[in-house]
Every structure is written in structure tokens, then in C-alpha cells.
Amino acid sequence: MGLTRSEQMARIRGSDTSPEIALRKALWARGLRYQLRVRAVTSRPDIAFVRGRVAVFVDGCFWHGCPIHYARPRSRESFWSAKLVANIDRDSRQSIVLEAAGWKVVRLWEHELVLNLAGAVEQVELALTRNPDGWPFQQRVRRVVDLGGGLERREIVALGAPELVIAVNDGARVTAKARFLK
């Protein structure tokens, strides 16, 4: 007999995921020394460069609403929709508070670490050496509405202003986690 949904969800790691460990190893190999589980203002980034005041978060595509890979669950849709909104709101608050306290925030998608680890390391290095003004804003899927017939409407928001919808995309339902993670 298979695992219950609760047992499956309990097995999902919140930290020390494969993409996060790959990033940490690559940063360490580049000579960039970081700290883990450091309290930075009101949050705990996945990776923190305390002297450089850079906070790095590795965001999972499902939990944080990746515009490319977020797959709407088929059961308990209202629960998961509320959970997604709460996660995006928390991400936004964390970034705003950290930046107001003088920290630079780097948010990386798990798929970025799998597909282009070197590029992700470069983003962290840029944050450590330069001012990130003008960096592209982070996008999130805030809400997914079933349109029927295998179609869905996805509302995309900017992380810094999650209450404002910046795009609405209609298309085929995303049904599975990205293949690159298998």
C-alpha cells in the first residue's frame, strides 16, 4: 500500500534539498564562505553572507509559485490556493524587510540551480560585489483558475507587490513537476 498524502508531504524537505546543496558546494568551491540558518532581521535565509549582507533563498517551484513550473493540485484546491498566497506574501515581506535593513536579497528557483548552476553562482557573486539596482523583479504565480477542458488561467504577480497582477496567462494545465528534476 502506498503512502498517504500526509506521509508524502511530510517527506518533503524544507532545507538541505539537492539543489540547495549543489549551490552551497559550488559557492564553497568558488571560495565564497557563507553561513547557514543565520537569523537575518526577521527571517532565516537558506544561505547568508553576513559581512556582505547578502541573503540567498532557494525557492521551490511548487511552494513558491514558479511562473514556469507551478502545477495546481487537483485536490483541496482552496487549501492549496490559500497556502500559495500565504507563501508569496511571506516571501515578499521577507525581501522587503531585509532590503530595508540594508541586505541584498537573491532569490533563486530550484530549476535555475539544476539547469544553470554557474549562472546562479554568478548572481550571488554579483550581489556580493555590486549593487543589485535594476535587477529583474521576481515573478510568482499567485492564483490558478481551472477554465475547464484542460485549460487554466494563471495570475502572475511581482514579488515586491504581490497584490498587483502583472500578467494573466491562459493555457494548458501544468500537470507535473518539471522533468529536469527527475
Describe this structure in words.
With 182 residues, the protein is of the alpha+beta class. Helix content is 34%, strand content 25%. The protein is built from five helices and six strands; from the N terminus they run ααββαβααβββ. The longest helix is centred in the middle third of the chain and has 24 residues, at 77-100. The protein is globular and about 50 Å long. The model has no long low-confidence stretch (mean pLDDT 83).
Mean pLDDT: 83
Largest sheet: 3 strands, mixed
Total helical segments: 5
What percent of residues are in strands? 15-25%
> Regions with pLDDT < 50 over 5+ consecutive residues?
none
Distance between the termini: 23 Å
Helix content: 25-40%
* Assembly of the depicted chains: single chain
Number of strands: 6
General shape? globular
Structural category: alpha+beta
The H/E string reads HHEEHEHHEEE
Task: Give the helix/strand layout.
Elements: H1 5-10, H2 18-29, E1 47-49, E2 54-59, H3 77-100, E3 104-109, H4 110-115, H5 117-129, E4 139-148, E5 151-158, E6 161-172
Parallel strand pairs: 2-3
Antiparallel strand pairs: 1-2, 4-5, 5-6
Helix pairs in contact: 2-5
Quickly list its features.
Endonuclease, Chain A, 34% helix, alpha+beta
Explain briefly what this protein structure is:
This protein is 34% helix and 25% strand.
